[in-house]
């Protein structure tokens, strides 16, 4: 009897463990599938060096053989009139396909057709020199003329354009909102994406209204879009230009963590905006919205924020109709199964497949048409060469291979010391990732008000991949290359053995007077590699110093204090602070310092001892 009970108990334990394992496996599988379906995989492309994370669904599915060529007698229906659809249709037309129909939900020919990474910076910075009204009018005129040209290009293809919104796809037919049915042999969905509906949309202002805001309380609700910080930055700039009698209280609320918050520029960017009086709350949940009050929950506590203007900055979602009762879609990079699961006759292009840039959408359309005509499976190897480009309007930009986002080996430069007149007085910082074995820069990360222009220059000057000729149309300052020339020179200097110094206090000049020393501080660009910065300063001291308004002076003063105290006490973390008047102080330590602007030197003294530090540029 006892053995029987033991067996039953063991069987029940094994069954429970098996159930737990199955449930965990299902959750992992569903999570990976969800990541893929939402376009995050395709958006980042996770090229971790030479390895690639596979489509999780393909682990349990067998790969189908390459389809034969698509006959020109087949009826092809293309839903959408954006850049992906136009590229695909134009390629079909050149290949001789005639049985093609276009379904358009509206008359916005060309779709968004905006590639932030390729736009000249004039589109970002012109607002400084013009009134908001004139900018809006010019933008409307430009977009209107562009849409007319695009519409004419669609019509010149000769394919019939049917007006209507597709609601469902069933079997070999699509159903329009009007009730009309259209049959097809092949269906291409280039329906783009759409902003998620905000429950309290009636309380928000439009982007056009945003340009008229010059005072009051502005609250920006963001779904994790870094561009929201740029909106806040622009609002402060515009109010400052209006005069001293205007003021604006700006708060940015992130309902989810923005991407890339692990990169060093995030804290720097956030801190610079907070210095300007911009309040940033991340993350928070919206509980209730009334005409002039927003209730949020932050770390379990409710908080009410009043506002005069509320701007919603949502994240787009895939905009696909229901297909055979399902909405699950996956885009395969090989175009072998670039379609809805279980439907080899339905394909997805453009933003509907995972938030592509205009360049990628155009390339994708051409590749699919070529695959249909040739009957071959064409791998989109071009995508592997495309650099990851993230732009938050004008203030934050990154270019490089996707795997570089995960690297901890970022180095930095401060724009203030680079001598380029266009950025000398602008707050900004540049991070770069250097491959010492190949002696090349693999990625650039810029935090600056003209980040989009600078990132384009970086791509050209250090030969990072450039995917669009429009990158080259940026206005280039004659001495722009000085930034990146200095960057490369500093990198080369780091590899020079003569520049490496294991001493805690750097290079000391001979001096017979023990009460006065002369030290030389290495270039700030080497703060993340030079042995002095790594050994003389703690991690907390380095982080505070690099984020200071004058990092070179900060490290010089701190190094002087540490040098003078080395005989009296063991130097640990010293929290050097800067007062609102710009004077540096340390709680509990009485010291003085004097800056010599002509010789780039600072003299630090404690009682009768003093040390002079020279900063290397």
From TrEMBL:
Coiled coil: none
Biological process (GO), any one: 2-oxoglutarate metabolic process
InterPro entries per UniProt: Class-I_Pyr_Nuc-Dis_Oxidored, FAD/NAD-bd_sf, FAD/NAD-binding_dom, Pyr_OxRdtase_I_AS
A single MF term (Gene Ontology): flavin adenine dinucleotide binding
This protein's UniProt keywords: Disulfide bond, FAD, Flavoprotein, Oxidoreductase, Redox-active center
Record-linked PROSITE patterns: PYRIDINE_REDOX_1
Top-rank taxon, per record: Bacteria
A Pfam family the protein falls into: Pyr_redox_2
Cofactor(s) demanded: FAD
Domain FAD/NAD(P)-binding: 75-364
Family: Belongs to the class-I pyridine nucleotide-disulfide oxidoreductase family.
Name under which the protein is recorded: FAD-dependent pyridine nucleotide-disulfide oxidoreductase
Protein's organism: Stanieria cyanosphaera (strain ATCC 29371 / PCC 7437)
